[in-house]
């Protein structure tokens, strides 16, 4: 009798349990960039463009002047460049979003002993937590590069129809050889440094 009673409760418990949020990589209706504010050593005003990709899956951040350099005679402040960006995003009510992955496209010329790092810190206005993702690669190397960071961040935007995603995009160079040089700059095809932010969504 006890077993039967417990089994009888299972359907009721299943109905009472809250459903897990359903994640999707396609944006909800009405997804658009409502406004952008930015500043930093790597993005003087007028040098950053932001839009939603045609398929609604990612946000391309396109920089005209994101350049870091290291080596004899180089100013130490050039070793690290950043851009602090606030993206005001609008979308259909009842959704929340997070960063799924990132893609970085640029040009690198690194001597042996030089390490390049590209990445970003993410957080949402109104939320206390933040998350970071970075990708590093070593010299010697010369040419255009494409780097992927497939580590999803753990923080989500507040539930609603508008969220402000804050992104501190960063490039930096370090070296264990005082005579080595390196540069991270825009790629040679379209003279841009691109940081694509892929998003994931869930109903809330």
From TrEMBL:
Keyword S-adenosyl-L-methionine: no
Region forming the signal peptide: 1-16
Record field: transmembrane: none
Highest taxon in the source lineage: Eukaryota
Keyword Signal: yes
Name listed for the protein in its UniProt record: Secreted protein
Originating organism: Patellaria atrata CBS 101060
Keywords linked to the UniProt accession: Signal
């Amino acid at each position: 009798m006890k077993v039967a009673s417990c089994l009888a409760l299972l359907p009721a418990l299943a109905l009472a349990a809250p459903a897990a949020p359903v994640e999707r990589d396609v944006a909800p209706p009405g997804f658009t960039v409502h406004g952008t504010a930015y500043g930093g050593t790597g993005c003087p005003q007028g040098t950053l463009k932001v839009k939603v990709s045609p398929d609604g899956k990612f946000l391309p951040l396109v920089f005209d002047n994101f350049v870091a350099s290291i080596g004899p005679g180089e100013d130490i402040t050039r070793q690290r460049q950043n851009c602090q960006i606030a993206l005001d995003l609008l979308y259909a009510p009842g959704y929340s979003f997070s960063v799924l992955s990132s893609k970085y496209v640029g040009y690198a010329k690194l001597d042996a002993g030089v390490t390049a790092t590209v990445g970003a810190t993410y957080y949402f206005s109104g939320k206390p937590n933040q998350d970071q993702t970075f990708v590093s690669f070593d010299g010697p190397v010369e040419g255009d590069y494409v780097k992927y960071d497939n580590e999803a961040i753990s923080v989500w935007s507040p539930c609603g129809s508008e969220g402000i995603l804050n992104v501190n995009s960063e490039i930096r160079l370090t070296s264990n050889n005082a005579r080595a040089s390196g540069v991270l700059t825009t790629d040679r095809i379209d003279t841009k440094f691109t940081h694509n932010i892929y998003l994931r969504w869930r109903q809330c």
